[in-house]
Amino acid sequence: MADKDAGTPRVYLARHGETEWTINGRYTGITELELTENGIKQVLGTGKILIGPGKLVDPLKLAHAFISPRKRTQTTFDLLFGGAGKEALLKDEKVTTTEELAEWDYGKYEGLLTKEIRARRKEQGLDQEKPWDIWRDGCEDGETAQQVSDRLDELIKKIYKIQSPYMHGEKPADVILVAHGHLLRAFAKRWLKYPMETPLSMMMEPGGIGILRHVIPVIPAALFMTVNC
To answer: Model confidence over 186-211: pLDDT tens digits?
Structure first.
């Protein structure tokens, strides 16, 4: 990244820590699950190393935090920022819990594995030429890829509104999203203005943090990386 782009605001993507369904690969949308003991350790480790004054995610440089309403993401936010950090953000009205960051609504596929979904759909006479792909086919009685794309585009508009006046470092305007695996991958695609079907080699481990930012002239997502501790 060129020096002229180094001061542009960042968008941090924080995935919630491990749950029991994360371990076995079950699709977890609306189901409320607690973090496992290991999941708590993952998030605490990330927070200790990456979040704090002078660290990668400096709370003093955050313009806003957007959080999914699911319990596992709320817990992750609490663990990442600790009592004082969270209270300071809340006091400054910099925290929003939003359904725009809720995990993909998997509908009838909630709690299933990919192989179970594909087997069920074949029994229904679907996907005879290509296996089911959530990015193309969406979820029965749940969300389509377009519906997920639409709600994320609305959130991206809000983030642009926060960050666009400060593209040259006039004022800290970083944003953090605390959400879910599929949803954050979808967000990265839409930040890049990619269609949802576009392949994107991006895997965020539970408790990991990714980074998106801009280049000048303003083009989204010049940088992406994930960090796990």
So the answer is: 999 999 999 999 988 777 899 999 99
pLDDT recorded at residue 6? 58
103 is known as an active-site residue: yes
Q: Which one of the listed residues 18, 100, 103, 143 is annotated catalytic?
A: 103
Q: Which residues contact 40 (CB under 8 A, 6 or more apart)?
A: 17, 75, 79
d(CA 202, CA 55): 23
pLDDT tens digit string along 135-192?
Answer: 999 999 999 999 999 999 999 999 999 999 998 888 999 999 999 999 999 999 999 9
Cis, peptide link before residue 165, omega less than 30° from 0: no
Please choose, from the candidates 178, 163, 159, the residue with its C-alpha nearest in 3D space to the C-alpha of residue 9. Answer: 163
Catalytic residue among 16, 64, 180, 214: 16
